[in-house]
Amino acid sequence: GQNIDQPTEMTATEGAIVQINCTYQTSGFNGLFWYQQHAGEAPTFLSYNVLDGLEEKGRFSSFLSRSKGYSYLLLKELQMKDSASYLCAAMDSNYQLIWGAGTKLIIKP
Amino acid sequence: GAVVSQHPSRVICKSGTSVKIECRSLDFQATTMFWYRQFPKKSLMLMATSNEGSKATYEQGVEKDKFLINHASLTLSTLTVTSAHPEDSSFYICSARSTDTEAFFGQGTRLTVV
Questions:
Q1: What are phi and psi of B47, to 5 degrees?
Q2: Whose CB among A29, B20, B47, B80 lies 3.0–4.6 Å from B68's, allowing a Cys bridge?
Q3: For A11-60, how does the pLDDT look when each residue is reduced to its tens digit (9 = 90+)?
């Protein structure tokens, strides 16, 4: 079957770095998405990886290893506004997204 | 890597008006483009698949006359939301691929209909 695993909740300190891991199993693979979702709002697109390696966008970076079925989202210089849920989603061979349950990130001062 | 540019990133429109969203492949020829819609707390939904020079193939339940898709060239596809209503407010994202590449995704467009 198809499955996405990511931690339910993580806590980090303002100004620090946090890594959110995601493992996936899908029928075919057409890329891995990361979304940020604040409570009561729709998810907003953060990154998309289809090739192995690290993609950096400012404070956020996303890594993919296709052979391991593994990705992580790295957030640097954490700010209080980064408190949100982070959703990992893998796209299968039919171009449909398979979603993880999301990781709730709590930032403490 | 290949770049897909989606424009605008955010748009607010009045109910009853139409909104056009553009999806461009900047450094490759996109023979196929996909349009998705993000529903709150749900999976990204594939709306339609378009091949350059032919009519788009819509997924079941997607209104063809409401969501007009044009893929007139190998680098541009447009999605027009006609007579938009508040329930059309959503996050729309496109992706594009050529015959021998993976699909690359645009940044998405947040549409708010007021």
A1: -95, -50
A2: B80
A3: 999 999 999 999 999 988 988 999 888 776 656 778 888 889 999 989 99
- Within 8 A of B34 by CB-CB distance, chain A residues are 95
Strand ranges across the sheet with B4-7: B4-7, B19-25, B76-81, B67-73
Cα–Cα distances in angstroms (integers) from residue B19 to residues A76, B15, B53, B78, B89, in the given order: 36, 10, 22, 10, 11
What is the full DSSP assignment across B30-59? -SEEEEEEEPTTS-EEEEEEEETTSPPEEP
CB contact under 8 A, A96 and B105: no
Least Cα distance to B9 among B94, B97, B98 occurs for: B94
A14 CB neighbour count, 10 Å cutoff: 13
For chain B, say whether A91 makes contact (Cβ under 8 Å).
yes
Sign of the alpha-carbon dihedral angle for A57, A58, A60, A65: positive
Surface-to-core class of residue B108, CB atoms within 10 Å of its CB (0-12 exposed, 13-18 middle, 19+ buried)? buried
* Secondary element (H or E) of residue A47: strand A44-49
Structure tokens at B46: 């594939």
- What is the per-residue pLDDT across B38-95, written as a single tens digit (0 to 9) for each? 776 555 688 999 888 888 999 999 999 999 999 888 999 999 999 999 999 988 988 8
Beta strand ranges found along A66-102 (DSSP E): 70-75, 84-91, 97-99
Whether chain B has a CB inside 8 Å of the CB on A97: the answer is yes
